[in-house]
Amino acid sequence: MIRVLVVTTVHTPLDARIHHRQIRALRDADHVVTYAAPWRATGTPMSACLDGVRPVDLPRSVGRRRWRAIRAARRLLRVAAGAHDLVLVHDPELLLALPPRRHRVPVVWDVHEDTPASLIDRPWVPRPVRPLATWFAARLEGWAEQRCHLTLAEESYVDRFSRPHPVVPNHPWLPDEEPPPPGSERVVYVGRIARSRGALEVLELARRLRHDPLRVELIGEADRDVRQQVAAAHERGELHWHGFVPNERALELIEGAAAGLSLIHPQPNHAGSLQTKVLEYLSRRVPVVTTDLPVTGLFVRRHAVGLVVPVGDDDAVEAAVRHLATAHDERRAIAERGYALVRDELNWNRSGARFVAYLEELAGLVTPGEPR
Q1: pLDDT at 133
Q2: Can you tell me the mean pLDDT for 171-176?
Q3: Tell me: domain 186-344, CATH 3.40.50.720, correct?
């Protein structure tokens, strides 16, 4: 048994990668987990934390308001880190909160994204200072590599670092029961609702389908600059917006859809990544409609698990969705291929076990190569 302190001030406490995948995998392996996250600041009740996991509240880092959360995390780490065998942090700014190396247990930074590239997609970073912020983020990553252990969410992140680090992909858990075949009445989107992630294209699709039996459903938080438009479309009945829903429930909601949307724009932080939502749709037997990004577009074509459309092409999105809703045999065949791919290879049941084994090794519970 190892004792793990998991810390985030940026992510919602019920973040799919942190709470639903990594913490659940650690708990299921009978390890003791303390989870420090912005519970109150996000309006998330601590009772929503997984059974057996101890929640601790922290302020939230939002936009440019981050120092209060960093200071609170620093105080927590100074007091609590020594009572654990390992610390797992999920935000790059938490690297600034770590106690001196000689006074701390092993620390793992879980790299969720291409941090320097992601700043281009952050409206709270003023455009004139983005080059400086990007430079600083790259320097911070290099500093972290010398002082922490790293895990990477994507293969494409490997080249940013000078040493090899384990890749822990965002594969979905397999559902406890086989999901139903795709239906023909709904098209769904799950994830952050943002302009760079195709929010305007989804809104236009909903407008075009407003008199159709085929309806659009959105599951996730909306960025401030599109929130009012999404809410208005919901009020007009053009779409149904569920708001934020914990990952496990969100995946249940997408079951039976004709298509799952991934209309992401070509940002540097997305170009080399296979979008997590694509695998989540496939894990629930839902075909994908995706924009033609280098990795995701190639993946969908190669495995024939959906349709690929040009970025920003509203006509192509509408045509793809309507085709999947009406071509019943093709839709089911696509869904079966996608589900089989996740079931047999790309699932967290397998990837999570490797993640847990790596943390056990770092904490000294097992030696490299030793079976658990």
Answers
A1: 59
A2: 94
A3: no
Neighbours of 311 (CB within 10 A): 15
Exposure class string for 217-243: b at 16+ Cβ within 10 A, else e: bbbbbbbeebeeebeebbeeebbbbee
- String of DSSP letters for 65-93: B-HHHHHHHHHHHHHHGGGSSEEEE--GG
Residues 6+ apart with CB under 8 A from 339: 179, 282, 283, 284, 285
Task: Tell me the residue type at 156.
Answer: S
**CATH of the domain spanning 3-171+348-362, picked from 3.40.50.2300, 3.30.70.2740, 3.40.50.2000, 3.90.1300.10:** 3.40.50.2000
3-class secondary-structure state, position 202: helix
Mapped onto helix, strand or coil, the DSSP state of residue 216 is strand
C-alpha pair distances (Å), 77 with each of 59, 88, 94, 243, 362? 14, 11, 10, 32, 18
User: pLDDT category, 146, cuts 50, 70, 90?
Assistant: confident
276-283 and 328-344 helices, crossing angle to 10°? 110
Locate 253 and state its tokens. Answer: 């909601």
Measured between alpha carbons, how far is 257 from 151 in angstroms, rounded to an integer? Answer: 33
SS3 for 286-327 is CCEEEECCHHHHHHHHHHCCEEEECCCCHHHHHHHHHHHHHC
Distance CA 245, CA 247 (A): 6
Give the number of other Cβ atoms within 10 Å of residue 212's Cβ. 12
260 with 277: CB under 8 angstroms?
A: yes
Say what the pTM is. 0.84
**C-alpha span between 332 and 52 (Å, rounded):** 39
